[in-house]
Amino acid sequence: MGLLDNFEKGLERVVNGAFAKTFRSGLQPVEITAALKREIDTKAAVVSRDRVLVPNRFTVRMSPADHQRMSTLGPALIDELVDIVQKHAASQHFQFAGGIQIGLHADAGLSEGMVQVDSHNVKGRVAWTPVLDVDGRRFPLLKGRTVIGRGSEADVTLDDSGASRRHAEVQWDGQRARLRDLGSTNGTELDGSPVTESVLEPDSVITIGRSRIVFRVLAQADPNDTSASRRADPAAQRRDDGGSWGPDR
């Protein structure tokens, strides 16, 4: 299964059937993915024998109408795009200078269905963001323990009669993740095999009852890295370089 197929399946979890009708015309989410892949492949630069550098900051421009439809999906769409960019780069053995950042912008100069991608390299810190994808919902993991179960006291609540009230937990220490079954009635599976406790690798699939939970680690730009923000800002670069401050003439 190709990367675009994986993206479409991921997007199906984000967009329910009723809302998907909105995308029968105009720009399709999968077209944004294709444009991002083309941008990465086109801008790939060989900097040494073992290092091929690709952009990590992307501005995706589209018509105002398309932008309004995409914005309705909220941050889930951006997360899916970051995930697919990360996987595509890994499959091609490309490397990033810093964390991945993708912004969607309305451009009145573009007609519906059109998309343009601008990109550049910004060296900066990477914020490795662990998440659980559950039936179209995405739950960022904080340091400590995240309980999954059917009960209201669980951090990730499953609408699944096959799940116990406190079924399993994911432990995240800032670098590594572990899965532990909490003595559930029906047990927990990891990548199709029963498990009591195990290390969680990126893209591992946890099965609880009928629920399929995917553990992912997204390489996002660190929002606290102000130096990276300045490098991405042409105006800031002009100030740092001793250039003039104000509109370009």
Structure description:
Residues 228-249 have a biased composition (Basic and acidic residues). InterPro entries: Cell_Proc_Reg/RNA_Proc (IPR050923), FHA_dom (IPR000253), FhaA_N (IPR022128), FhaA_N_sf (IPR042287), SMAD_FHA_dom_sf (IPR008984). Keywords: Phosphoprotein. With 249 residues, the protein is of the alpha+beta class. It is built from seven helices and 17 strands. The strands form four sheets. A six-stranded antiparallel beta sheet has the order 8-7-17-16-13-14, with helices on one face. Strands 10-9-11-12-15 form a five-stranded mixed beta sheet, with no helix packed on it. α1 packs antiparallel against α5 (75-91) and α3 runs parallel beside α5 (75-91). The radius of gyration is 20 Å and the shape is globular.
End-to-end gap: 50 Å
The biggest beta sheet is recorded as: 6 strands, antiparallel
List low-confidence stretches. Answer: 1-8, 11-22, 228-249
Percentage of residues in DSSP E strands: 25-35%
Question: Structural class of the helix and strand makeup?
Answer: alpha+beta
Number of alpha- plus pi-helical segments: 7
Task: Write down the Rg.
Answer: 20 Å
What coarse outline follows from CA principal-axis ratios? globular
Q: What string, H for helix and E for strand, traces the elements in order?
A: HHHEEEHHEEEEEEEEEEEEEEHH
Mean pLDDT reading = 81
Give the oligomeric state.
single chain
Helix content: 25-40%
Overall number of strands:
17
Order of neighbouring strands in the sheet with most strands: 8-7-17-16-13-14
